[in-house]
Amino acid sequence: MALQPVSVSRPATIHDIAALCGVAPSTVSRALSTPDRVNVRTRERIQAAAVELNYTPNSQAKALSSGKTGAVGVLVPDITNPFYFDLIRGTQLQLKAAGYTQLLVDTEESDEVEASAIQQLRKSADGLIVGASRLTDEALLAASAAMPLVAINRDVPDVPAVIIDTPAATGQALDHLISLGHTKVAYVSGPVSSQSNARRWDALSLAGGERGIEVVKLGPFAPKTQSGAAAADTAVHSGATACIVFNDLIAIGMLQRLRERGVRVPEDMSIVGCDDIFGADFCNPPLTTMSFPIEQAGRVAVTMLLAQLDPLRSGGTRSRSVMPTHLTVRGSTAAAPSA
Hints:
The chain is an alpha/beta fold. It has helices at residues 14-21, 25-33, 40-52, 59-66, 83-97, 111-124, 137-146, 166-179, 195-211, 228-236, 248-260, 294-309, 311-314; strands at 71-76, 101-106, 127-131, 149-152, 161-164, 184-188, 214-218, 242-245, 270-275, 288-291, 320-323, 326-328.
């Protein structure tokens, strides 16, 4: 049967292809989505018509028929925090290579915003990557049970996760300060909702006890540069000669405030940050900090999620991956001041 000419000034639909081929729209739909269900001659005619009309499948219609959207939601607590830049880049590149679109959501350090975003993304994404979730363990477990999900830097039983080994780096930071003669170290803590914050404090207090070093906890403080002034003031009055800080943003704010107060870093007080964000080595002085392969963490999380979405193709799934960490020593730490 000869193809009948059809004039199409708008994007072509399966109805246009059906009219061109003289078949039912349902036949066109089967030929394009499940070609094995249509005989070879009809299928080839429909495929030729689709090319002639420059037909592009409607993604929403495809999602309705296949149950797949081709998109993955990536949630982070604060999109302005440079720590998440490399994570977002890692997920973006890995998802793009796999043919997925990244849907980026800033959850504003809020468990309510995060929960609402996850609920909405259940309709528009095939899976989720959740960075440093602020949800309770129970809520994160429920979200993981409802759709494919991988958490980054959040360790909850039965939730697939990429864990950054910050306790190991915290121990390295403490040993570094001990080697410089510091005997009282303050931990400048971050948000109470951050599991990473709790894990670092637990590791630090345990290591301090094992090494006979006094460790005190200050805060909590919001994980922003603006919090550094209050953190610095608190640290000065704590009697500690060194601080291990929840993240680089607070640490950078502390450097600024300590300089204003005439407290010399590192001569009077040593500061260790966490995350090794862009700019940490540009500070005055350059910031000693804990470094993580955060872009790699994003890539690994995507690989783990894709294994959930297509286990046969991936060859199996992993439920947990631990990323190594290390201490990067720069100019913000030095020998403890003489008594």
